[in-house]
Amino acid sequence: MTALYEKYGNAIYGVITRIVKNQNIAEEVLQQTMLKAWNKMENYNESKSSIYTWLNVIARSTSMDAVRLKRYQVEQKTDTLDPLVHDSKTSNINVSKIDVGRLTANLEPKYKDVLDKLYLEGYSQREVSDILDIPLGTVKTRVKYAIGILRKELENEKSLFLGILFFIILIICLC
Amino acid sequence: MLNNIQDIRESGLLELYVLGELTPGDISQVEAALELYPELKTDLNEIEKAFHSYAEAHAIQAPYNVLNKVLAQTKSDITTDNSTSSSSPSSGIGTLAKVALLVAFSTILFQFFSNRNLSGKYAEDLKITQDNCDDEKQNLESKLALYRELDKINNRSISVSATEKYPETKIIFNTNEVSKRNFLQFKFLPPLESNQSYQLWSLKGNNPPIPLNVFEDISELLEVDFVEGTNAYAITIEPKGGQDTPTLENLIGVFSITG
After folding, report:
1. Distance, CA of B201 to CA of B98 (rounded, Å)
2. Does A118 share its domain with A170?
3. Are residues B66 and A34, on separate chains, in Cβ contact within 8 Å?
4. For a Cys-Cys bond, which of A21, A35, B146, B232 suits B203, CB 3.0-4.6 Å?
């Protein structure tokens, strides 16, 4: 469980926090998510999805359950996400592997907006369509395009990494 | 209907599948396609990585207190599971805990059913108490009504003329010739033997004494018979139950009505 938490906890927590928009509730949801994963571990099928995807689906559904709770509506009046997300003093945000700026550099705002709302903020496709006032089909298309861009960026990073590694090995061999 | 692998890739369903945004029908369709086209799994893996990377880019440090809580819960689950099969000391504690839980539950059940019976008994006792209170209330109201008679304007209070044999006798005789009611208030009377009673007599002209009320209880105001034309009333001590002629040597006192 510790390994699972340390490997995926930060990313899951980031998604949860943006959906529920409350730190206290986010912590509870994270705890529930990990416990659900623990109790349903025997149901995980690696041929159907990665473990992160599986965890993420649990986290999203648990977050949406919390959002529907009445307490969420009360808590939101007294506490907000902004200090948590934008606080530069918030330490240990694990972005050491991924540079969000570089990752999304080629992602236009209209695609990033759809991706953020659908993936990070927990809205359904229908809700995103209503909020952004775009057709449902456009939501699907923009998500697909945004992920396509991210896939290319990751591929480019992988290629760059391999290239650098090859160069280093070459230098070592020549020396 | 997705006819080929290219349709699937362009449909956007794989992305939505990773997001968990598909209906059960669409999920089945995607999973069937994954079975049919194993190369789609590469696309799926890359999509998952893209989403994961995006989430990592927006990650927030997960609090360690949450991990501790999760670990505590999962360790508790493991201990509970192990206690059913192993013979280690922890399994003994687990068994003990189960027995304690069973005892506690049984006790609660017993108390519950006892309380149900007890509440029935309480209800019965309460009813009896209520009935007693009602009776007492009626009794007191009756007595109050008697005392109110003494305050009526035509009521006359006459102190007993005690005999030499019983000089300490103190009795108030209340008579009302309009309402034709008599009451006796007892302050002091000579004590009775167990086989004796007090008896009231009406003395009217030259007629033999008329036997009236026989009583032993002198604790309360006592309403007694009213005889029209009585000149005096007398009290004697008689054999228990009274008799038809007075025992004159046991005359306690006389109340003169006509003066």
Report:
1. 83
2. yes
3. yes
4. B232
